[in-house]
Predict the 3D structure of the following.
Amino acid sequence: MFSPSSLDSHSDIVQLIDESKNFSTSINDFLHKVKLNGAGLDYHIVSVFGSQSTGKSTLLNALFNTDFDVMSEIKRQQTTKGIWMARAQTSSRLLKQPSPDGEEASSEEDTTTDQESKILVMDVEGTDGRERGDDQDFERKSALFALATSEVIIINIWEHQVGLYQGANMALLKTVFEVNLSLFKDHQSKSLILFVIRDHIGVTPLSNLSNTLTADLNRIWESLSKPADMVDPKLDEFFDLQFTALPHKILQPEQFSSGTSNLGTRFTDPDNSEYVFKKKYHRNVPIDGWSFYAGNVWQQIELNKDLDLPTQQILVARFRCDEIANQSWDLFEQELLELKKHIDAKLQSDKEIDENFLTVGNLIKHTRSSAMLVFDEFASKYAKAVYETKRKELLSRIDSELINIYKNHLTKLLKLSLVRFETKFAENLSKNLGFLVSIDSSELTTKEFFLSNANNASADDGVFVFDDEFTTLDEEINKIKAIRRNNEISKIISRAMKKIKPVLSEKIKDVFKNPNEDTWDRIYDEFNSISQMALSRMNSSTITCDTGVIDFGVGAYVEDNQKGVLEFKKQAWINFEKIIKGDVCRPENVLNRLLERFDELFRFDENGAPIVWKPSDNIEAVYLKAKNNALLLLPIFCEAKLKDGTRITPGVSIAEEEEDNLKNERDFNDFDLFEIEKRPFSAILTDKQKEEISNKFKKQCDLLYIESKRSTIQSITQIPIYVYALIIILGWNEFMAILRNPVYTLFLLLAGGGAYIIHSLKLWSVIINVTDAMFLRVKDMAVEKLQDMAVNSDTKKSPIRQQVSVRASSGGSDHYSDNIELDDFNEQEN
Ligand SMILES: Nc1nc2c(ncn2[C@@H]2O[C@H](COP(=O)(O)OP(=O)(O)OP(=O)(O)O)[C@@H](O)[C@H]2O)c(=O)[nH]1
């Protein structure tokens, strides 16, 4: 509670308007000095009017503990010139707070708290001063200024002046009323006029004095010429009136002191029924804009321009909101600089995903909101419409800067999200979660990561949108997924290929062991059946793949699965072609196969036993038959043709254009020699190759025929009879020695027994044949060696000859072709 008796300090004072009517430029400094610059709307202004030297300054000093100059009793000349302002110094004693048990606190000091006053007091130059003479200009202007800025106007008059209608006070009141009419046309703000009647002796009660004054005021009001646009305006529509009286300061100092003390509570105690600072009196100009407002008001008054407060309030709102917006912008720019530095540092260091990167989002949001917080705190106290407009302008300016940073942030976030997707996918795969689960779960977590971080920075009102970036992320993930799915399908196909290739090769070789007219039908059937079986095994769907569409189980679209099937068929076909052209039907292998067939027919009987030619045998007929028979196989190897004459193609499910593509995709490196890439699949061997094979075959056959013929001639050579006689004569003693030796005799008996058993079982011919065959082989080898050295003009042995030799020595086994297949496989693996 305000207590004048406890006033103990002196206020700082500023001259708002000097005697030359100049408005001070240091109001803000003053407000800062008296620590009211941050009060917002929480302040009050009271001013005092009255004739010169009527104790106005004395009253203010007594009420508010200010330090306005007071006239010297001796000189009695004007002291207050212009308008002065001071902050009321209040050491207010709060009411005692009841303790929890209902008793008052024992010590006053315990419950006393200093409370800074929020009252600004204006001491206005007295009217009717002899110093200004008849110049009423300042009097009128200062009244206008005080009304425009103050909530409460104290009219200070002596008691003896009350009722003197023609006196100076009434002229002043008339001035106040007149200017008030021009100021408050809209009736939005009222003012309180507080009459303080000085030197009140007490003979006339205050109520009588109040009535007299009220009557005088009404009379003055009636006499005023009102603005034409006002319909019978009443005094109380514009003013509230209060009256109080104070005893003589010099003659009744104690009563004067107690009177000012009581009056003071009406300024400081909101609970006081006569509390003067009602909300309706406030001019609603925040204190930080008051200097501009007051200066502007004074300028208008000085230029004698129309002054209406709402316009002034809008003006000050615009001015101050602009100022505050600029301050907020400065703050924003500082923070923006920091934000950019932070982002640059992050961009350089964040090669990998760094969770600290997420702070960028928060910082963007913080930079935006901190600047706006400052603006809102100060500007929101001004005219709402102006504040909101200026707020939008500032926000849009800030957002136009931040949006670029946000978009860059999103671009970075997008990249990080995609990296994260790949990393997550690899992690999931390494955990053996399976392709489908791995890729789906990676997509989900990646999108969550993006959304949470994009939202993080996008501010509460969703100014920064990220729909486009999210769509891009979705598209990029889908692209990666499509690539990964196709890769996975390729891997599945490649694994399947590794499995079916040896099986297919084995089956084809089996078929070619006995080539005949339906060889290619059987091979083609094997190929189709193995391919179909492999496709069925790759199908993860329970639906059968009769339609040719299977599901590889990687979440691919039907079209991708279809492409996978085509890819599989292509690979299968390429491998099939490689087996046929690069292995089974290579010219040297075809030659071997023909020679094998010739061997089977010419050198072995129907039981598979080697034939020992006798002079009586028609070797030539057998030779011709075997040779012609073997040559019949050659066309089978040369052209892949089905029994019905149609050519083998990659398969019905591969379209013609696909077949063309296939030719371009084939990797014929390992059998380029045969230039088969220029020919259709069915043309396996060229005519030239065919002729070469035929010639080599015939040559080999001829050699074998000659050998057979020679062996027959040798076998018919006989030993002369005298040789036997010579053997008996010369070996007689040796025979006798053997017969007389029991060991030799026993050996002879065993040999005789054995011979008897062989004879009894009729095995002589077999034993003789085997023995002959052995000799023949040994002889053949010797002969071939000699022939190679002597007959063949080539210095090197031909591979075909080698193979024949090897094959002959190994009893016709297929080691050679086995070796080719192995080499071929190894090459492919590499
Ligand atoms: N009779 C009487 N004199 C007073 C009272 N209060 C102050 N004074 C005297 O009146 C004289 C003028 O006092 P100020 O307070 O300077 O009066 P003022 O109205 O501020 O004077 P200006 O600023 O020059 O217009 C001083 O000499 C005071 O001592 C009072 O209550 N009664």
